[in-house]
Amino acid sequence: MKSTILVRYGEIALKGRNRNVFEQQLQQNLKGALSMVEETAVERLHGRLLVTGPQEKHDQMLSRLKRVFGVVSLSSVQRTPLELDKIKAGVGELVAAALPGNKSFKVDSRRSNKDFPYTSPQLNSEIGSFLQQTYPDLEVDLHNPGFTLFLEIGYEEAFIYLDRVAGPGGLPVGVSGKALLLLSGGIDSPVAGWLALKRGLELEALHFHSFPFTGQRSLQKAEDLCRRLALFGRRVPLHEINVAAIQKEIKDKCPQQLAITLLRRMMFRLAEALSVERGLGALVTGESLGQVASQTMESLQAIDASTGMLVLRPLITMDKLEIIARSEEIGTYDISIRPFEDCCTLFVPQNPATKPKMAALLKAESELEIDTLVREGLESLKSRVIRP
Ligand code: ATP
Ligand code: MG
Questions:
Q1: How far is the CA of 340 from the centre of ligand 2 (A)?
Q2: pLDDT digits (tens, 9 = 90+) for 46-84
Q3: 86, 158, 159, 387: which has the highest count of C-beta atoms within 10 A?
């Protein structure tokens, strides 16, 4: 027996000429999500996708498909030929399985194929009377039905089903381009990454460490977070850069209340250099307005001024509690709260500037060999690909 799942998508349909690109990407992403399940296929229909696979793998398929961005809803469907009698037979079978405990129902028909000789209201009434004849105890209840029988008349066949499961919405990963996620081991940046994936960005991740001042645990965390994110998109290349030497230079040569902003500016320069090399079009960070001293408007502006790149901050208006709730939902919270040494918590100044002045930053940076530090930072680059 084959199991068939109808996949609906929303925003894609709005995208006019790009529609084909989006559908292809979604199809490819659905195939990717099912790559571990044997004998599955993903076909494109008119404005829908149809996934088929072995019946015994149905639940596994559904749970994977539910995570694919761009999917608005999913239904397990039964397919029948476009003939009223065959549709009725299929409905009879499907309802036999759903009947126990249900005394009332309604029929909800939709006819995409206008060549089919029955209109939607006619179908509702045909199928409704057929069900009442077959199961005399069943009543029609349009307002509070025990179950709803959905019928969709397509171009080649009809689909009947009893429910819809919500998908995550958003856009298929890949349609918006590629970005570099600045991934610390904290709670925020993985959530920012998930939201970026949700808007169709394909991600690579960059983690800064301060080996030997930070240890293996922070690298392991970054890897585990990437693995989790990969579950929602596809493989995530993870890059690691050592900023210990940069931090030491800043500590030795610059005013300590500017240290965090200066380090951030160096991180952005390194991130930009890596993005150019990898063809990535934006940086994504977990910054949220006002959360800490380095996330005031003035600090963010000072940090942005170090790069010409587009910087996306999906969490900018979110409260910490909202971010935590999301991280629990997507399964990154438990990884994020593991104890670890963050490179930023080393050398933390007592009183970081909340309104760093550009002139003061530039003066402090004139003491640093910026180009050399960036080049040496890049020499420490290590990369690997993390798969779910
Ligand atoms: P997070 O919970 O993501 O660590 P945070 O609230 O601790 O965020 P900061 O430490 O100020 O905030 O970092 C702000 C952002 O800068 C992070 O969300 C992340 O995008 C980036 N960032 C900070 N530290 C690192 C790091 N070690 N490696 C890569 N990116 C980092
Ligand atoms: Mg942090």
A1: 11
A2: 888 999 999 999 999 999 999 999 999 999 999 999 999
A3: 158
